[in-house]
């Protein structure tokens, strides 16, 4: 990195090369599809390979992963996880956590603004499930390329062709299988690698998936003998795939229109090595990010980064506020003084960290695609840009369709000032969306969330941080639509509906009891504006 007379630093030539080594992705799935298991399996495979049999190294890596997982499992409301770095085959894979599970929240969606690719993880017995569909909607809206991993093939499940059909019919994503299972789900024999000249690998179970699955290549002649009828059936299916042209196509994959599909089983970690290879070979590295006006900022331009997540009080002892930043361009060096685009103020990065599970490590350098955590980030907000050198503003992260609504009231009227300040803060940080209306009055704002856990976070923080305990009364709305000033008076008086203003951006939202009521309103008022919001709803 060179520093010019005006103090601006520029990315060094190796920034572009480092960016090319990065793969930054997230796993989108429904609870129980196997996200935690797959994450462990990815780390296990990568560790086993990079440390080349060094037991010590392997042990350490597993420790890191397990910490992360323990935290996931024992998730309290003040805990988060951010990114897991996996070194594999001269690539750096950054797996960004999508806090999914039962505590689905807006954070889950926002992570998808910070990745270059997503793995859509399906349970072979269940296919596409609601949470996966919602997350997929966000990927589609942002044209994020999606790799599909059909998991739990070692258990009884559905036919592979039927699953492919479901993907194509329900979400319009053209599936292009990279491998093909031999044996039906539940009687899984092995995988044919379509991307490597149809080589066949027989599955070997490892007890509990504790160690790396052995991959045993078999010739087609041997396979025909050992696997019998199921082998012939798989070959027939493969032929069919060839005939219908279900072959990998880079252009449509990168445009988010087709999806390479892998079958496998995360628990016995079978097919996981091919998923790693697929990430390295096919997933796109970071590329020039467009600013608000659509102008691309090359990865080797001076530093720029996007705040995609804020977390308060990760560390109880410190009461800090942490911002997770995805590096978009340039080389990050700890100590750099950046500019906070929305205020123009300097932001010191002396205390930047990489966060792996509950362990915090100080990070000195980071490249496009990496995630850094900035502590004491009280002035930063989700969607903010930080930069060095020429000014850049990345477009804001969209807000998503809330499905849960509650009226907040201060329990202690004497603490109203703190109550107001706290609600303002929750809004600014994007913990929940805050809606107001003249009818309800300022003392009773409506909080809107995509997942109910967001309410718990607000309740907890209002009490702990602002000493302004609140009571939340849930209100019976399920659907939100964007409307405008002309339509608002028409819609507001209708039964089962109400129009409120979103504090953060002044948008008018119509809340409706449910989608049936919405249908009736749409029928009766075709002239009124009622636009869907992104995802959810
Ligand atoms: P998450 O909620 O998506 O993180 O799912 P988990 O990783 O916790 O997995 C949910 C359950 O499915 C656990 O009991 C796992 O052991 C099990 N599971 C995950 N992957 C597989 C697999 O490939 N085969 C089988 N048989 N079970 C699996």
Short description:
By secondary structure, the chain is α+β, with helices and mostly antiparallel strands.
Layout of helices and strands:
Blueprint: E1 2-3, E2 9-10, H1 13-21, E3 22-28, H2 35-50, H3 55-73, E4 83-88, E5 91-96, H4 106-111, E6 117-123, H5 130-141, E7 146-151, H6 160-171, E8 174-177, E9 179-182, E10 190-193, E11 199-203, E12 215-218, H7 220-227, H8 229-243, H9 250-254, E13 258-263, H10 272-282, E14 289-290, E15 296-297, E16 304-312, E17 321-329, E18 332-333, E19 337-340, E20 345-348, E21 352-356, E22 359-362, E23 365-366, E24 371-374, E25 385-387, E26 400-401, E27 404-410, H11 416-429, E28 433-436, E29 446-449, H12 453-464, E30 470-475, E31 479-483, H13 488-492, E32 497-502, E33 508-512, H14 515-524, E34 531-532, E35 534-536
Parallel strand pairs: 3-5, 3-6, 6-7, 7-13, 8-13, 26-35
Antiparallel strand pairs: 1-2, 4-5, 9-10, 10-11, 11-12, 14-15, 16-17, 16-25, 17-24, 18-23, 19-20, 19-25, 21-22, 21-24, 27-29, 27-30, 28-29, 28-32, 31-33, 31-34, 32-33
This protein binds guanosine-5'-diphosphate.
Guanosine-5'-diphosphate (GDP) is lined by residues 29, 31-37, 101, 151-152, 154-155, 265-267.
In words, what does this structure look like?
It comes from Murinocardiopsis flavida. This is Peptide chain release factor 3. It is found in: Cytoplasm. By secondary structure, the protein is of the alpha+beta class. It has 3 domains: 18-55 and 72-80 and 96-282, P-loop containing nucleotide triphosphate hydrolases (Rossmann fold); 300-387, Elongation Factor Tu (Ef-tu), domain 3; 404-532, Alpha-Beta Plaits (2-Layer Sandwich), CATH 3.30.70. Helices cover 29% and strands 29% of the residues. It contains 14 helices and 35 strands. Strands 20-19-25-16-17-24-21-22 form an 8-stranded antiparallel beta sheet. A hairpin with a 2-residue loop joins strand 4 and strand 5 (91-96). 48% of the residues are buried. Guanosine-5'-diphosphate is lined by residues 29, 31-37, 101, 151-152, 154-155, 265-267.
């Amino acid at each position: 990195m060179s520093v010019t007379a005006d103090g601006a630093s520029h990315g060094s030539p190796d920034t572009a090369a480092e960016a090319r080594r990065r793969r930054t992705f997230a796993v989108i799935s429904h609870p129980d599809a196997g996200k935690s298991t797959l994450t462990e399996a990815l780390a296990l495979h990568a560790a086993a390979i990079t440390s080349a049999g060094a037991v010590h190294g392997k042990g350490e890596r597993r420790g890191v992963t397990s910490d992360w997982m323990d935290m996931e499992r024992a998730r309290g409301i003040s805990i988060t996880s951010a990114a897991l770095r996996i070194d594999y085959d001269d690539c750096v894979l950054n797996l960004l956590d999508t806090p999914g599970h039962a505590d689905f929240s807006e954070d889950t969606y926002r992570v998808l603004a910070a990745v270059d690719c997503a793995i859509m993880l399906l349970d072979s017995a269940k296919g596409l499930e609601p949470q996966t569909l919602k997350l997929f909607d966000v990927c589609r809206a942002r044209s994020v390329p999606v790799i599909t991993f059909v998991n739990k093939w070692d258990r009884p499940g559905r036919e592979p062709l039927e699953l492919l059909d479901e993907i194509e019919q329900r979400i319009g994503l053209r599936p292009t299988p990279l491998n093909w299972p031999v044996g039906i789900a539940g009687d899984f024999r092995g995988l044919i690698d379509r991307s490597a000249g149809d080589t066949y690998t027989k599955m070997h179970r490892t007890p509990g998936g504790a160690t790396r699955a052995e991959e045993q290549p078999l010739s087609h002649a041997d396979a025909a003998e050992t696997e019998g009828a199921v082998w012939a059936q798989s070959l027939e299916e493969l032929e069919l795939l060839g005939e219908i042209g279900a072959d990998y196509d880079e252009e449509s994959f990168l445009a988010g229109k087709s999806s390479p599909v892998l079958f496998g089983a995360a628990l016995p970690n079978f097919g996981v090595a091919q998923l790693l290879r697929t990430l390295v070979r096919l997933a796109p590295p970071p590329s020039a990010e467009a600013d608000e006006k659509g102008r691309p900022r090359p990865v080797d331009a001076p530093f720029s980064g996007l705040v995609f997540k804020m977390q308060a009080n990760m560390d109880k002892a410190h009461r800090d506020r942490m911002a997770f930043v995805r590096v978009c361009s340039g080389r990050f060096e700890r100590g750099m003084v950046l500019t906070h685009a929305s205020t123009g103020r300097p932001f010191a990065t002396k205390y930047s960290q990489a966060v792996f599970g509950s362990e915090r490590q100080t990070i000195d350098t980071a490249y496009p695609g990496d995630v850094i955590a900035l502590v004491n980030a009280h002035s930063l907000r989700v969607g903010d840009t930080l930069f060095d050198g020429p000014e850049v503003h990345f477009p804001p992260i969209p807000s998503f369709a809330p499905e849960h609504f509650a009226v907040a009231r201060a329990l202690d009227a004497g603490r109203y000032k703190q109550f107001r300040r706290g609600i303002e803060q929750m809004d600014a940080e994007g913990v929940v969306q805050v809606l107001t209306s003249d009818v309800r009055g300022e003392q009773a704002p409506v909080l809107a969330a995509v997942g109910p856990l967001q309410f718990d976070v607000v309740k907890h923080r209002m009490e702990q941080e602002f000493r302004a305990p609140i009571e939340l009364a849930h209100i019976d709305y399920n659907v939100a639509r964007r409307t405008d000033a002309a339509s608002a008076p028409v819609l507001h008086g209708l039964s089962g509906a109400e129009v409120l203003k979103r504090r953060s951006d002044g948008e008018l939202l119509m809340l409706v009891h449910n989608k049936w009521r919405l249908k009736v309103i749409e029928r009766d008022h075709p002239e009124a504006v009622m636009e869907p919001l992104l995802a959810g709803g």
